[in-house]
Amino acid sequence: MPETAPHTTALDITGWTCPAPLRDRPRVVMGHGGGGALSAELVQHLFAPAFGGEVLAQLGDSAAVTLGGVRLAFSTDSYVVRPLFFPGGGIGDLAVNGTVNDLAMSGARAAYLSCGFILEEGVEMSVVARVAEALGAAARAAGVEVATGDTKVVEAGHGDGVYINTAGIGLIPAGVDLRPQRVVPGDVVIVSGEIGLHGVAILSVRDGLEFGVDIESDCAALGGLVQAMLAVTPDLHVLRDPTRGGLAASLNEIAAASGTGVVIQEGRVPVPAAVGNACAILGLDPLYVANEGKLVAFVPREHADAVLDAMRAHPLGRHAAVIGEAVADHPGMVVARTGLGGTRVVDLPIGEQLPRIC
Amino acid sequence: MPETAPHTTALDITGWTCPAPLRDRPRVVMGHGGGGALSAELVQHLFAPAFGGEVLAQLGDSAAVTLGGVRLAFSTDSYVVRPLFFPGGGIGDLAVNGTVNDLAMSGARAAYLSCGFILEEGVEMSVVARVAEALGAAARAAGVEVATGDTKVVEAGHGDGVYINTAGIGLIPAGVDLRPQRVVPGDVVIVSGEIGLHGVAILSVRDGLEFGVDIESDCAALGGLVQAMLAVTPDLHVLRDPTRGGLAASLNEIAAASGTGVVIQEGRVPVPAAVGNACAILGLDPLYVANEGKLVAFVPREHADAVLDAMRAHPLGRHAAVIGEAVADHPGMVVARTGLGGTRVVDLPIGEQLPRIC
Question: Of A117, A119, A246, B216, which one has the greatest count of Cβ atoms within 10 A?
């Protein structure tokens, strides 16, 4: 065989100049996957310019695309949660509900999912089976079909049991146009229920950190709740599910993309006592803790009462509450009015309080 | 906080009975990701029953689904190739072309991709950037838009630099119905070019195994070639891209699903000398080595000449060749006529010759 040097034909990775916002970190850190400012930098300064395209630049939970004259929502998430099973769920149902919820935030009812497994050599087949069964059960419960899949196996020490990617597609109903650019001052901010349950449930079973707490993850599919809200009016402005980075990250993303300010009344945000206690002990702020079965909605003021009533009539919205409003002041910034009458800025988190919660 | 035991609410993974075909291997082995018999067992006996659904049961390279009255192809693959860059490509372009090709095997032109990165803590940002740039360039070349994405980060020692999942959607043209069940005895088997290039290119740069070989991966997007073939007639019967498990795996999948036999003339299969030499030295059979820019087509006999001409007129089909036919004999089995007039059975591979080639 000829003695060529095959590496010379590989991509040349010398001479690349790191974009300024990423320059302080020449290597990937955990926070780049945290859904906060580091994640946003990576997407805005590295992935989006490299990929190009107008749809990605929308940077929503899911993309709205048109294909064959039909408006579709299209979304993906990889799931690397540890441990694989936790109070209230596991990676299998999380992989369904997370992607179903991203589609629901476009107003779409999820129709089909793809499912890619990256398995680590040596993981017990019974673990894979229980993950798959939970995934299938969650898909049936959400009314979505797993249409296509893929399995890869990596050597022991190059994975962590089971990683899952799901992508999903669903139809966006006519007249529904959910995006932060539609938010205007005066919009009412509604959260669908108690926050912080998923993150604290995961944390309670983390290696080396186990603590007893009487709560479970809120992991659930929100498609039905969103349909109930849209039945009141298709004219909701924007929906987000506050996963990584919690409610604080979602509100900041909406404020930044809409160019409005957001004010929340801290005392109106539903925080279960167990979450509040756990956060106090661990030094966490519940606003930054992940949820997997909640949404935050920006609703035109004239529809707010009716939408809230519809949410409270749905099992997944029983504890829905108005927590604030969009304002013309401090565009792009989120502030919280505290119980004592003070005000604090609710920043986009830098990295993440809890790695690998989804 | 109450002293409950949170683990009791997690999924119970005791008492699970392994389906018989999987029973010999209570843990996942590398071969479960190899695209051969072990992969098929995992899908048929574990994933498919757990997920349910009729579409997944088609088990093609991509699923054909109907949404809003429109026929779509939907497919996903995760990419865990090592090394990340290899002669002729890298994980970024592979992640585009692999999924574009899966869609093309349904006759669909890929329209939108999702892209999920699982990054390992500590990987150089420049590596991520070059992967992303190659991914973006490949998407533009293939005429597909990256519409939505996700990034997760796992701790060092739980990944391998960069893993990527892509899912894709595209329109299936009217009148096109590509699936193995349409194969009938007499169909002509055409391969689009020289086989084995991708697998040997990867192997040539594997840690501890480097050898000089004057070939590059054939990694390429086949959408244009497929459109050229469909322009001759929409009545092609089935297309597959022979990736993991090589041409042997694709032919076996088609034979099994169609219930016909397949006969190939071994001497007509285009094997480049460099691939043949490398395989001889390493004890590999080129029929089992992965490709990333080739397809195999089962074409009605009356259209075979015209389809072959159209393929040869396309840059990615210049070396297209008729290699065999579907037969009524030995249903479900693939046999090769050797140069000496003998016959050998071409089995579905059990696991894989080369782990992590895509």
Answer: A246
Contacts of B53 in chain A (CB under 8 A): 139, 145-147
What does the angle CA B72 – CA B74 – CA B75 come to, to the nearest 5 degrees?
Answer: 155
Do residues B92 and B127 lie in contact, with contact meaning Cβ atoms separated by under 8 Å?
no
Same domain for A232 and A323? yes
Domain count, chain B: 2
Which CATH number is A76's domain given? 3.30.1330.10
Together in a domain, B184 and B164: no
Q: Which of A239, A237, A235 is nearest to A223 (CA)?
A: A239
Q: What is the pLDDT at residue A20? A: 73
Same domain, B146 and B289: no
ipTM of the complex: 0.94
The answer as to whether B108 is a domain residue is yes
Instruction: Please count the CA atoms within 13 angstroms of the CA of A81 that sit on its side-chain side.
Output: 31
The residues, ordered by sequence, that sit 6+ positions from A333 with a Cβ below 8 Å of its Cβ are A255, A261, A262, A345
Domain membership flag for residue A22: no
Q: Which pLDDT band, with edges at 50, 70 and 90, does B8 fall under?
A: very low
| Mean pLDDT score of chain B | 92
Q: Does B193 lie in the same domain as B168? A: no
Q: Are A77 and B116 in contact (CB < 8 Å)?
A: yes
- What is the tens place of the pLDDT at every residue in B22-56? 877 889 999 999 988 999 999 999 999 999 877 77
Give pLDDT, residue A72: 97
Give the separation between CA B166 and CA B76, rounded to whole angstroms.
6
CB contact under 8 A, B146 and A51: yes
Residue B53, helix vs strand vs coil: coil
CATH code at position A316:
3.90.650.10
Q: Is residue A157 a part of any domain in this protein?
A: yes
User: B110 to chain A, minimum CA–CA distance in Å?
Assistant: 11
Is the CB of A245 inside 8 Å of chain B's CB atoms? no
Q: Is the pLDDT of residue B11 over 50?
A: no
For residues B94-111, average pLDDT: 97
Alpha-carbon distances of A138 from A95, A330, B166, rounded to whole Å: 9, 41, 22
Give per-residue pLDDT as tens, A11-50. 445 567 778 778 778 999 999 999 889 999 999 999 999 9
C-alpha pair distances (Å), A64 with each of A147, A166, A275, B14, B135: 20, 17, 35, 42, 21
Q: Which of A52-66, A292-306, B264-278 has the lowest mean pLDDT?
A: A52-66
Element of type H or E holding A240 = strand A238-240
- Convert the pLDDT of each residue in A321-335 to its tens digit: 999 999 999 999 999
Domain boundary among A148, A174, A200: A174
At B209, the pLDDT band (50, 70, 90 cuts) reads confident
> Which domain-ending residue is among A149, A174, A199?
A174
**Which range marks the domain in which residue B144 is found?**
61-174
Of B1, B275, B340, nearest to A273 by C-alpha is B1
CB proximity under 8 Å: A 89-108 to B: 90
Average pLDDT (B259-267) is 97
Of A3, A56, A119, the CB nearest to B28: A119
Q: Within a 13 Å sphere around the CA of A40, how many CA atoms are in the beta-carbon half?
A: 19
**Would you call B56 and A111 a contact, using CB atoms and an 8 Å cutoff?**
no
Share of chain A above pLDDT 70, in %: 95
Inter-chain CB pairs, A–B, below 8 Å = 391
Residues B87 and B214 in one domain: no
Query: What is the spatial distance between Cα A163 and Cα A148, in angstroms, rounded to a whole number?
Result: 16
**What confidence score (pLDDT) does residue B332 get?**
97
Same-domain pairing of B88 and B188: no
B1 within domain boundaries: no
Taking an 8 Å cut-off on Cβ atoms, the answer to whether A69 and B70 are in contact is yes
